[in-house]
TrEMBL record:
The record marks 100 as: Important for activity. NADP(+) binds at residues 190-195. Substrate binds at residues 49-52, 110, 115-117, 121. Pathway: Porphyrin-containing compound metabolism; protoporphyrin-IX biosynthesis; 5-aminolevulinate from L-glutamyl-tRNA(Glu): step 1/2. This is Glutamyl-tRNA reductase. Possesses an unusual extended V-shaped dimeric structure with each monomer consisting of three distinct domains arranged along a curved 'spinal' alpha-helix. The N-terminal catalytic domain specifically recognizes the glutamate moiety of the substrate. The second domain is the NADPH-binding domain, and the third C-terminal domain is responsible for dimerization. HAMAP family: Glu_tRNA_reductase. Catalyzes the NADPH-dependent reduction of glutamyl-tRNA(Glu) to glutamate 1-semialdehyde (GSA). Homodimer. It comes from Pseudonocardia aurantiaca.
């Protein structure tokens, strides 16, 4: 089976396209089911984050129908002609797809290089696909391998400590803009994974007052209790902005939840107090016009990307890339050996069955042979068979990892004639 990856990310894809590709949790099953229903796709996982949309599919057939099916779905969801997609999407088949997933899991492809939030996101994507019944041993296997590589890279290098999350980067940006957060009032809207992280980071930064809001009052209450904050109802947020210094949003809504008119009214009561707005939502939670209001600074994910691009590159990146390269070679080698196993098994089975048949014929013709001689001739013939098969078996395993390994295995099929049914046995 072949792994196929079609991916869009902040590196080459316009933000407005990525916004349309974000898959809310309640829609993920439908997206997975529609992809899995295509006859070319045997297994599929969708990784959807704030700055990437990636499909990893397994197919027993050629990759081209899978690429077409995924491209059609992506183009329809993004509202763009399918022939424009190659300009903003990466397509990887086989080993390059494996290498890309391993790099993503290690944080090498993240906007905040080394950030470990991507690990939780990959695990969540795999769990969702398993629950939807759209994955299997091949895609699950490559994801499990990617998570192991990520763990090794984060254990053996400093990539995790060098990397920071988008939330932390945004809070650092706010701290610099506001001249410190110790005396500030911060409001967090959204109690999902990103909102929780932002609230914890703000508490660690020592903000004087912290308020959290959510569409779910229960969610806001739980998070407020965990970080010693004040819970707010969603409708109370505009009023809270009148004396806030920092607003962070991460709701997962498909339409803006912070409107320019509400912020304008709140800031009129603030008496010229500066407000830094950090929009971590994708699609955006904040109307763009908010950034045009007096005394208001709006930073979205694009702004964070520019900020992070100016930061020093973690020194351990070459070491992590070397780990990824070594692990890719090892993983692909194991796949090739596994592909060779049925052919080798069929070869052993056919030669052994032939030897057994000839031994039976010999012993029938020489019925006077003693039990001792029968045992001796049987052992001798099987010893010859083992010695004969040893060389081809070793070479088959070695050459299975070669780019031309498939040609060698096909030659074995032609020479020894294992049938498809025998190869599956």
């Amino acid at each position: 089976m072949t792994i196929v990856n079609v991916g869009l990310s902040y590196r080459i894809s316009p933000a407005e396209v990525l916004e349309k590709l974000v898959v809310p949790s309640m829609e993920l099953d439908d997206v997975l089911d529609r992809l899995h229903a295509d006859p070319a796709i045997d297994e599929v996982v969708v990784l959807s984050t704030c700055n990437r949309f990636e499909v990893y599919a397994g197919t027993k057939g050629p990759p081209e129908p899978v690429i077409r099916a995924v491209s059609d779905m992506v183009a329809a969801r993004a509202g763009i002609p399918v022939d424009e997609l190659p300009q903003m999407a990466g397509v990887r088949v086989g080993t390059p797809a494996v290498e890309h997933l391993f790099s993503v899991a290690c944080g090498l492809d993240s906007m905040a290089v080394g950030e470990d939030q991507i690990v939780a996101q990959i695990k969540a994507a795999a769990r969702a696909a398993a629950e939807a019944g759209t994955t299997g041993p091949i895609v699950t296997g490559v994801i499990d391998a990617a998570l192991r590589v990520s763990k090794r890279a984060r254990t053996e290098t400093t990539i995790s400590t060098a990397g920071i999350s988008l939330a932390r980067a945004g809070i650092e940006l706010a701290d610099a803009h506001l001249g410190g957060l110790a005396a500030s009032h911060a409001v967090v809207v959204g109690t999902g994974a990103v909102g929780k992280l932002a609230a914890r980071l703000l508490r660690e930064a020592g903000v004087q007052r912290l308020s959290v809001a959510s569409r779910s009052e229960a969610g806001a209450t739980r998070l407020a209790a965990a970080v010693h904050a004040t819970p707010l109802r969603a409708e109370d947020v505009p009023a809270a902005l009148a004396d806030a210094d920092l607003l962070i949003t991460a709701t997962g809504c498909i339409v803006p939840v912070v409107l320019a008119e509400d912020v304008r009214a709140a800031r009129e009561r603030a008496g010229g107090r500066a407000l830094f707005v950090l929009d971590l939502g994708m699609p955006p939670d904040v109307e763009p016009a908010v950034g045009q209001l007096p005394d208001v600074t709006l930073a979205d994910i694009d702004a964070l990307g520019r900020h992070l691009a100016e930061q020093a590159v973690p020194a351990d990146i070459p070491r992590v890339r070397a780990i990824v390269a070594a692990e890719v070679d090892s993983y692909v080698g194991r796949l090739h050996e596994a592909a060779a196993a049925p052919v080798i098994g069929a070869m052993h089975s056919q030669i052994t069955q032939l030897a057994e048949a000839e031994l039976l014929r010999l012993h029938d013709r020489m019925s006077s042979l003693s039990d001792e001689l029968r045992a001796e001739t049987t052992a001798t013939v099987h010893r010859i068979v083992r010695k004969f098969l040893h060389g081809p078996t070793v070479r088959a395993k070695e050459l299975s990892t070669d780019p031309e390994g498939a040609v060698y295995l096909e030659a074995l099929r032609q020479l020894f004639g294992p049938t498809p049914s025998e190869a599956k046995a």
